[in-house]
Write a structure and sequence with these properties.
single chain, about 350 residues, alpha/beta, Rossmann fold, Dihydrodipicolinate Reductase, domain 2, 2 domains, six-stranded parallel sheet
């Protein structure tokens, strides 16, 4: 980010998208110090005006992204729209030398994602992916405990995804209706979060096996399956997911499931309320206290993600979720579909 006379300048933000999940972005930017939202855009101008009025009263509302970029003059654009729109929107920003945070999935497929990242690199703009699960507080605390040596050598991580929002003919229609028509769904849209988080906790993956299936005939893509990852450290990761059943939680979308992280010294798990529990080897399990905010989505992970990116770029550093680095997650997503189609374990 630019600086002037050693003083940080206010970052001028423009947001494209005013749908269900974009609301969490609007709320997060409105609460973040050192930024100013100068433009809000949606193809439905009434939605843009409503988001502006609710969160950014000094911003301008637009129904055309190119006009917003030209008139509002942002130096960072937050793209919170469905995947097929990401390429054209990043191209608009690249043509105007404007940095980008882009929602995931980054693109409909790996080839398009690579082209998108190449376009940003050629233009000399910074591109980050809004991969927010690794910034959820329970995962961040787990990573802190790993760094502190609490586990010793890590053996495995397992996540059981059960948001319970995918049953019946109206699955997803009230919140994100395009989910129903995605030919690749569970892994491309959801499990990629856990693939990224597993890598954050365990290190780089070296092998992958997947068994995917569709349970709800009302949708086009897969909504259940297993992914088994092997890591360089010899550990394993198991993603066990379906979007039809739920888990024990007052809000099943808070954590979207339950996790176990195991090492030679003990096991850490979290439940559907975001509570962490530590059990030493041979000892009793006890709750592990830590602080976090229940505001927004997933323990305020949208705010944490955007803040990390802005703070990293202001300091001239690389964010954890830069676009080119994020391609590795998409490579593993592609490998999951190929493994399931071919019925075999792949070296990755």
């Amino acid at each position: 980010m630019d600086t002037a006379a050693g003083k940080e300048m206010t970052v001028r933000i423009a947001i494209v998208g005013c749908g269900y999940f974009a609301a969490f972005h609007h709320d997060a930017w409105a609460r973040m110090p050192g930024v100013e939202v100068v433009g809000v855009c949606d193809r439905d101008l009434a939605k843009a005006e409503a988001a502006r009025d609710a969160h950014h009263p000094t911003a301008s509302a637009f129904d055309d992204a190119a006009r917003m970029l030209d008139e509002a003059g942002p130096n960072l654009v937050d793209i919170v729209t469905p995947p097929p729109t990401h390429g054209p929107l990043v191209a608009l920003c690249a043509d105007r030398s404007v940095d980008v945070i882009c929602q995931k999935p980054l693109a409909p497929d790996l080839d398009e994602a690579r082209q998108l990242v190449d376009r940003a690199d050629t233009a000399g703009i910074r591109l980050a992916v809004h991969e927010n699960f690794r910034f959820q507080p329970w995962f961040r605390e787990a990573r802190r405990l790993v760094d502190d040596g609490r586990f010793g050598a890590l053996h495995s991580v397992a996540f059981r995804l059960r948001p319970g929002d995918g049953q019946g003919p109206r699955a997803y229609l009230d919140r994100q209706p395009y989910f129903q028509t995605m030919s690749r769904f569970l892994v491309h849209e959801t499990a990629v979060h856990l693939i990224d988080t597993f890598r954050m906790l365990m290190g780089e993956a070296t092998s992958l096996y997947a068994d995917l299936r569709r349970l709800n005939p009302a949708i086009a893509g897969e909504d259940a399956g297993y992914i088994l990852l092997g890591f360089e450290n010899g550990g394993t990761g198991l993603f066990d997911g379906n979007r039809l059943n739920d888990h024990v939680a007052e809000n099943t979308r808070l954590t979207m499931g339950e996790m176990w992280l195991e090492g030679e010294a003990g096991v850490l798990r979290f439940d559907g309320a975001g509570r962490l529990f530590w059990k030493t080897h041979g000892g009793a399990e006890a709750e592990h206290g830590y602080s976090w905010s229940s505001r927004g989505f997933g323990g305020d992970c949208v705010l944490a993600t955007n803040a990390h990116i802005v703070e990293s770029w202001r300091a001239g550093m690389t964010a954890q979720n830069e676009g080119r680095a994020y391609l590795r997650n998409m490579e593993l997503v592609e490998a999951a579909y190929r493994s399931s189609d071919e019925g075999r374990r792949l070296s990755v």
